[in-house]
């Protein structure tokens, strides 16, 4: 049995969980709505780790100007918005000037960074005073993430098969900035003030059948908030 459920099946269980738990939303929806609330006709946005598309595919028209940064040249060449401004580079050395952006956003990026401290300092550098950093990342305190760390490499072997990705598009997860405590510390060191750190549960990853779905829902109800599987965060760069 694979460690994670294929995406199409997972979405079907999510639809059911949403019906059974009114008000619950997947972390991707929470993140998307948070990004949308920070956009306006004059907003300059950096999509950090943009890959082939992401949240800006839908939300770009709401921003004044948006650009992407990713270290993978193949992903950039195959971006689903052909005229989307994008650059090849790493979060630890963002090739934009100080104070270039009102908003920096990233999803499924922080867990891959070899040096998150340096990357977050770069985020703070390219933000204008009063600017916002939004992110979505796994929470290493969740039991599933703990298991994945123990079974090193398992997730990377299965993700391409389950989510239809090429193996070259599946990057190793290092989890060096992936607990609430660690994130708060790194953001503070970088000169960013945490406004919100939202834990979002999701019991569908192991819902291979009815019994496992019910078991996952029971475990989800027992998990304390700081150990939910995903973290959606908002931090700001203070005014001098």
Provide the CATH top-level class. Alpha Beta
H/I helix tally: 9
| SS class | alpha/beta
Alpha-carbon Rg, integer: 18 Å
- What's the number of domains? 1
Descriptive account of the structure:
About 5% of the residues have low confidence. Strands 3-2-1-4-5-7-6 form a seven-stranded mixed beta sheet, sandwiched between helices. The chain has a single domain, classed as Rossmann fold. It contains nine helices and seven strands, in the order H-H-E-H-E-H-E-E-H-E-H-H-H-E-H-E. With 240 residues, it is of the alpha/beta class. Helix 4 links the parallel strand 2 and strand 3. The termini are far apart. The chain is globular, with a radius of gyration of 18 Å.
Notable characteristics:
globular; 36% helix; 7 strands; seven-stranded mixed β-sheet; 20% strand; alpha/beta; 240 residues; Rossmann fold
Secondary-structure topology with pairs:
Layout: H1 7-20, H2 27-37, E1 44-48, H3 56-59, E2 65-70, H4 73-77, E3 86-88, E4 101-107, H5 116-126, E5 127-138, H6 143-150, H7 154-163, H8 180-189, E6 193-200, H9 210-222, E7 230-236
Parallel strand pairs: 1-2, 1-4, 2-3, 4-5
Antiparallel strand pairs: 5-7, 6-7
